Amino acid sequence: MKWRDGVRGDWRPYLIRRLQDAWVQFYVNRFIVPEFDDVGGGLRISFPRNLEIFGGQISVGKHAHINAAKGTLTRLCTWKTGEREGRITMGDHVLISPGTHIVSSESISIGSNTMFASGCYVSDSDWHDTYDRTAELDKHAPIVIGENVWFGVRAIVGKGVTVGDNSIIGAGSVVTRDIPANCIAAGNPARVVRELDPTRQIRTRAELFSEPDEQARKMDQLMRYLLAKNTLRRWLRSVLSPTKED
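Predicted structure:
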């Protein structure tokens, strides 16, 4: 039997929720943080057992949110070929959603405030030569992703690509060539379909963390309010013998 928080709602009492969150953060600090070469403060990871970090030279900035999910692996991986080792470098406030895989043979740089929706795939290598399927050879080139880029669900980014600041890559798009800043690109291969209005201000994820202590206090207050009527008995029933009411 698998323990769960509820079927249609979160029936956990506030104290249970706090204990579970504390355990997740302990697990992240104890087992996940040491896997990075460098990590900024405020790292948050959901379902950390479903996050795979493989290889060295992986770093992430402040207030990164890396999300996995039950049955959906999120993967950050660097590969070593001879003396060359891949590198993944992420700025501050990066958001990675469940099922996203970022795999490097050379170098992948991700700017601050960039967001990946679920199921994205970013790789700076083809991993096999066109005619020699046993070797990578020269089929690799660095990827540079600017700041505040937004990738839609299942977007794919190939080797040697640069994506400019603030641009949006549509869901299911395959990026095989450079995308300029301040535009929306979509399709396979992805091409610019619209330019962003340069007179409009763009709010970024950094604003969510301008006062992290105050944000944490407000989130705790909200959690207390939402879970205030939950009881231990109701939660246990939703776990052990759920009904349509749960």
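Summary: The longest strand covers residues 74-78.
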